[in-house]
Amino acid sequence: LPPLSFTSSSSSGSSSPGFTMKRNKEECIMRAACYDSHGGQTVRRMREDYPMPTRRKGWVLVKIMAAGVNPVDYKLCRGDVPSILVPKPKIFGGDLAGVVVECDADSKKFKKGDKVFGMMEYKYTKWGTYAEMACVRESALARMPKNLSFPEAACLPLVTLTSIQALRRGGICEKSRGQLKGKRILIHAGSGGVGSVAIQLARHFGLYVITTCSAKNAAFAKSLGANEVVDYRAQKFEEELKNNPVDFVFDVMGADIEKRSHQIIKQTKGSAYMTILTNGMFEYFEGWGRFKKPAAYTWGLGHYSWKLTKQLFMGPAYSVTIVQPCGEDMEYARDLVEKGILKPQLAKTYPFNRFNEALSEVAEGHCRGKLAIEIAGGGSGGSVRDDSSVSSAHRLPVIDGKQSDGADEKKAGGMAGGIR
User: Is the full-model pTM beyond 0.90?
Assistant: First the structure.
């Protein structure tokens, strides 16, 4: 695109590229993948003339190098959330990894040329990360881990923030680490985006981890740190665990899974049931036609209100997490990555012009690990780069001669694979 030109720094030994912005009459437009109306593949389009965001104080202008792909991206496009919350036209995406182009002159956190990663807010904004540029709150960003590429970093924010924030609400964090050793947690959909991060975090906190996934992904889940795996296709987890209840449940699926999970959690003080705002409630109202969404939202409001009130009087603590951008949490994630505690599971990187294919693959529910879109340098032509190009330290494990397929993400209808 003519308006912006970025050149590598000539400084020897510098790990951060330098940037020069060339001004001309077309400097206020950029390339962006967006939608103007709700629907499927036919409404997704690439615009060459999308207005560039204008930075204001407290915000950072970022040249996006790569964007993470999440189920929420296509679900917002198809209309799972009303336009009053997510206005149109809307640029796809919330996860990003890129380089600071402009920030406040007195910023103590970033400077021009810094590599950063983080998540933009999805609600109440038309902006997104499937674009060449984005303005992001300074408080939502952190410096990238030194040992990750841009695509690897871009696939982390949403799933990592969801896991950190949900576990924290259940009392699972660094401060309580000494009290958690030996306690048991059930993490649903362990081979999915959020599940694969939650397993790694839970083991870091000293928990005994049980997870649900398909048999073909069992070795993958164990490689992440799971102690036990329940094959949800052949076994009922409530039957397997009924004689030995768990202290914690982390549920990204909701609906029937939530009801069954309450059968195997200890009804004692200190136990906690953690869930995220899911779209599993839509399953109950599939045949309601145009009344489906209003009925589902009404039911969901009543359901969560009752659960949150009930915990005040009886049973385990109950929490519902709606993921929020947070630079401090991203800094914590960066430290875990650099120490080798948390490893991203990047499976494929798509060029920018093939973003539609990436969204379709996530929608099918059979993508292997996480997907990323290379924005810079991925605009025209190019092919999909599979996981063989990812550093061996972060590649999905090989199981029976082939990569784990991560298909359980499709089963997770929530914030890892649901509405945000």
Answer: no
* β 59-69/370-374 pair status: antiparallel
Q: Which two tokens stand for residue 139?
A: 């408080």
Q: What is the pLDDT of residues 308-365, one digit of tens each?
A: 666 665 568 988 899 999 999 999 999 999 999 999 989 899 999 999 999 999 988 7
Count Cα neighbours of 277 within 13 Å in the Cβ-side half-sphere. Answer: 16
Q: Which contiguous run of DSSP H or E holds residue 301? A: helix 292-310
Name the residue with tokens 């510098």: 14
Two tokens, residue 232? 């949800």
Say which amino acid occupies 390: V
Name residue 330's amino acid. M
Contact call for residues 346 and 159 (beta carbons, < 8 A): no
In terms of Cα–Cα distance, which of 175, 223, 183 is closest to 202? 183
Q: Coil, strand, or helix at residue 359?
A: helix
3-state secondary structure of 107: coil
Instruction: Give kind and range of the element (H or E) at residue 403.
Output: strand 402-403
Please measure the distance between the N-terminal and C-terminal CA atoms of the chain and give it in whole angstroms: 31
DSSP, collapsed to helix, strand or coil, labels residue 182 as coil
Rounded Cα distance between 312 and 391, Å, is: 47
- Do 375 and 65 contact (CB within 8 A), yes or no? yes
Kindly state the helix (H) or strand (E) to which residue 273 belongs, with its residue range: strand 272-276
User: What is the C-alpha to C-alpha distance for residues 273 and 247, in angstroms, rounded to an integer?
Assistant: 9
**Phi-psi category of residue 383: left, alpha or beta, with phi > 0 → left and psi -120 to 50 → alpha:** beta
CA neighbor of 81 nearest in space, from 258, 296, 255, 256:
296
Predicted pLDDT of residue 226: 97
**Do the Cβ atoms of 184 and 246 come closer than 8 Å?**
yes
pLDDT at 259: 87
Task: Answer whether 164's CB lies under 8 Å from 329's CB.
Answer: yes
DSSP label of 53: P
Q: Is 48 in contact with 63 (CB distance < 8 Å)? A: no
Residue 242, judged by CB atoms within 10 A of its CB (0-12, 13-18, 19+), counts as exposed
